[in-house]
Design goal:
By secondary structure, this protein is α/β, with parallel strands linked by helices. The protein is built from 7 helices and 10 strands. The structure holds adenosine-5'-diphosphate (ADP) (2 copies).
Amino acid sequence: MIKAVNVCKSYDTGTAQFHAAKSVNLDLYEGDFTVIMGSSGSGKSTLLYLLSGLDTLTSGEVYFKGQRIDEYSEKEITYFRSNKIGYVYQSIHLIPDLTLLENVAFPGYVAGRSKSEVHHQALNLLEMVGIAEQADRLPSQVSGGQQQRAAIGRALINSPEVIFADEPTGALSQEQGTIILDILTDMNRKSQSIVMVTHDIKAACRADRLVLVEDGSIHGILELGKYSTDQ
Ligand code: ADP
Ligand code: ADP
């Protein structure tokens, strides 16, 4: 589904180039729950940004279903970001003066879809992530875990083909984190492709494929979950 070929990303740090991704080659498969792990600063977020078209490459190629997204025009990449992928961040960042329902619906309106259709789907998504009762509350009026559930709903509103999640449980309690992981796992069982960055071993156990990143390179790939031979 997503293919990275010799992907490099360097940052100009003033005195020298810092290589945050060093010739990464990676294949991600449709329907997989892919987890990216590695120590802090190893380049996990950088890799997620490159694979999802949220950041530009220094060199290399990124393909989504055979199309080179790193060569997309501004218009094509904007469409890709709002319709083909959903993104969930550790820091959540919902719009503070919109209700949870409005936050979930927002990218649907931006995509130019009909109001009633988006509204209906946003309600269904809030139901799915278990916060329908909080639909009319502002983010500040619910817990961090409930905010993150709304953020997952928002990421799903345009029915993306893949969800990228960058430490989605990182700012949450153990209990709230488990709820988020259960939601993601359940979505994946219903064939949603997911690519998640995490530090959390428990979260990594949900993976079909575990990609280990160290110092800007892929250190190894473990096949678990549906690929595991002993299930
Ligand atoms: P991780 O997600 O594994 O913690 P990141 O991908 O965020 O790692 O960062 C990898 C490395 O690249 C880190 O050393 C970080 O400081 C550096 N880095 C990330 N973004 C930038 C940037 N915009 N400018 C300079 N250095 C950056
Ligand atoms: P995370 O914990 O999710 O990996 P980080 O704290 O590493 O997030 O990075 C947050 C943001 O800051 C990212 O957009 C990243 O590109 C940027 N960033 C990280 N390290 C640096 C750096 N050394 N210089 C500039 N920007 C950075």
